[in-house]
Design brief:
Helix content: under 10%
Largest sheet: 6 strands, antiparallel, barrel
Strand order of the largest sheet: 1-2-3-6-5-4
Length: 110
């Protein structure tokens, strides 16, 4: 799996702020940038087993980031696409890798 971590992903959070005129805008904050394994949904056995997350269409795996917890309130940007996070799990409970199930939304700006 380590040799297959070919994608650079950004883990981002959104934050609301108001400008001097009182207009609310949402800013994206890049929290971490890491290398990850990316797998898109195919009609294979592994994805059938993930039926509880039927909206998920993309899986990411990457090394655990020390002193940082990935949550479902964050997003992932990869290859110009944005992904909503549905599930975050420790792979095999060893604390070495994180597995994220996500859904591709629309292309990100910027």
């Amino acid at each position: 799996m380590i040799g297959q971590m070919r994608h650079t992903i950004e883990i981002i959070s959104t934050e609301s702020s108001k400008d001097h005129q009182g207009v609310t805008k949402r800013d994206e904050i890049v929290l971490k940038t890491v290398r990850a394994y990316k797998e898109s949904q195919h009609g294979n056995e592994k994805w059938r087993n993930r039926a509880a997350f039927s909206m998920s269409d993309t899986l990411f795996r990457f090394r655990t980031i020390p002193n940082f917890k990935v949550t479902t309130s964050m997003y992932i940007k990869c290859d110009g696409e944005r992904y909503n996070i549905f599930s975050v799990e420790d792979v095999r409970g060893r604390g070495m890798y994180v597995e994220v199930l996500s859904e591709k939304t629309s292309p990100s700006k910027g």
